[in-house]
Amino acid sequence: MAPVEVKALCSLPTTKVEKIRAAKALVEKAVKMHKVFSVQGHYPVIRAGLRARGWVERHLNNAGCRLSSHPSEKDKDDEKTEAVTFSWNKERGDTGEEDSTDQMYNFMSHLVRHEKTYFYWSGRYDYEHCRTLTPNQVTNHYAKTGHFTTKVGLCVNLRNLRWYDTADPDTFFPRCYRLVDEDERHAFIEDFRRTACCSLIKHVVEMSKKTNEQTQEEKNDQKVSTVSAGVINTALQVCQEYLSALEHSDIDVALETFPIVEEHQWNQFLQMYYMVVHNGASIKSSADFVSRCQAMLVQMKQVCPQMESDGFNNIWIIKPGAMSRGRGIVCMNRLEQILALVESDTTVVNESKWVVQKYLEQPLLVKGTKFDLRQWFLVTDWNPLTVWFYKECYLRFSTQPYSTTSLDSAIHLCNMAIQKHLQPSLDRDPTLPRDNIWSSSDLKALLQQEGRAAQWESVVVPGMQRALVHVLQTVQDQVDHRKASFELYGADFLLGNDLKPWLLEINANPTMACTSVVTARLCPAVQMDTLKVVLDRRKNPNALTGGFCLMYKQPRIEPSQFIGVHLMVEGNRILKPNPTKCKPKIVTSKPARSHFSSHGEMTKHSEKMTKHSEKMTKLSEKVPKHCEKVPKHSDKVPKHNEKMTKHQATPQEKVEERRPSPEKKQQTPPPRREEEIPVVHNARMMSGEGAVKDKPKPRKRSHCKSRSSESNAPPVNRKKNSFSRTPKSCSVSHVCKSSIKPNQRAHLWRYVVPGTVIPRPLQCLTSMHPYLVPPSCRKRAKETSQQEANYRFYKQRYMQNLVHYVK
Question: Which residues of 578-605 are buried (b: 16+ CB within 10 A; e: fewer)?
Answer without folding.
Answer: eeeeeeeeeeeeeeeeeeeeeeeeeeee
